[in-house]
Description:
single chain, alpha/beta, four-stranded parallel beta sheet, binds iron/sulfur cluster
Amino acid sequence: MSYKDPIIHIDEQLCTGCRRCAAVCPVDAIIGEPGHPQTIDAHRCVVCGQCVQICTAYAADNESTTALRAVKLQERGQLPNVREPLFAAYSSGDIQKVKAVLADPKRFKVVQCAPAIRVSLAEEFGLPFGTLTPGKMAAALRRLKFDRIYDTNFAADVTIMEEGSELIGRVMSGERLPMFTSCCPAWVKHAETVAPELLEHLSSCKSPMQMAGALFKTYGAELDGIAPSDIFSVAVMPCTCKKFECSREEMSVNGCREVDVVITTRELASLIKDQGIDFIHLPDEPFDSPLGKYSGAGSIFGVTGGVMEAAIRTGYELITHEQIPNLQLDFVRGEEGIRTAEVQIGELELKVAVVAGLKYVDAVLAKVAEGTCPYHFIEVMACPEGCVSGGGQPKLLLETQRKIAYQARKSAVYRHDSHQKVRKSHENPDIIKLYKDFLGEPLGHTSHHLLHTKFVDRSLKEEMS
Ligand code: SF4
Ligand code: SF4
């Protein structure tokens, strides 16, 4: 399948040609002269939405433009009463589809929320940057009439079980090293476009969002006694590229799409407002079990270094059969750029690198191609500080706000981790049960079928998706 909608657009009627978007684009996909409307090279574009975040050119909002605004909101897939200005750079919206399905009592509606939503959603309701609201988010989703409120964090724990086992296997055999993480679809699309010969270095794991979708329509369907084809699976993501990822041909399970629709943090906020839900005064409610119970390790996937930290917590204990001495691994935490570390795990000196921001990855890829890359395991997240800074997050108009907001969202993610009783993926009781009752073992037959994937050579120009 080819995704025909490029998802990220620049409205030529609104673009002033300031090229602020071109300055943040990590892959030089924005084309145009200063002072003239810009266009996007869809082949190079990784759909990260950073241009959408930075764009400050917007339509005047007055009586004479009201009709035009209604037309543009419809074209953009947004709800008619959304109050955000119409910016020149925007991502295609899917909220109208979700609203229609929520009103259909015959569908069984399942929702999952990425780790980085619960630390940013409240900003859309006027609360300070980084306010942590998992309980209100679950309550809001229940009032929107989702039948199951599940969590991507649960699938992040599954990812660690699968990816950690894969890494241990590769380190022991010395094959296909270094291994790159594969949970950021913008990074995956970039690798497929510029380095198809290196794709065997990516972990074969699907992203947590897709793993969750596959589990909802198999294990979850069995638990609820529902036909998989009756389940409508929605994912709330901080990321515009997740809309592209869910449409990939290989992201299906037994003939059903794993994730039917992805909406962003901003789209969820607009739906909550549209339904008149008083988010600030909602009580804290739990996620549903078992696909909504997560460890602290699952919750840190939303920040740069989070996947690495979660993997080391589990990898250390699986290899040494001893408790990791310290759960807070400051050496992989940080900001935009590249961080490296050597971690002693029993006899093994594991060399790791964390890449935050896609513009830093090409130098690493060049070293892998030359055979001189010294690392065993490399985490890559396309956005500057991981998903807390994703293209679908609440929009920040001032540069000064941006750093403060990212820092506050990251602190909230780490606070959330430190408050969890279980902080290692392999100790999550519902993960243990999932393997015992359904998956068997990491990298086993069922896991391989549901949770792993193959990548695509996109080096040819005409191949957009
Ligand atoms: S979505 Fe990302 S890659 Fe695509 S044009 Fe915008 S900034 Fe560049
Ligand atoms: S870092 Fe996160 S938000 Fe950004 S493109 Fe990757 S998965 Fe999406």
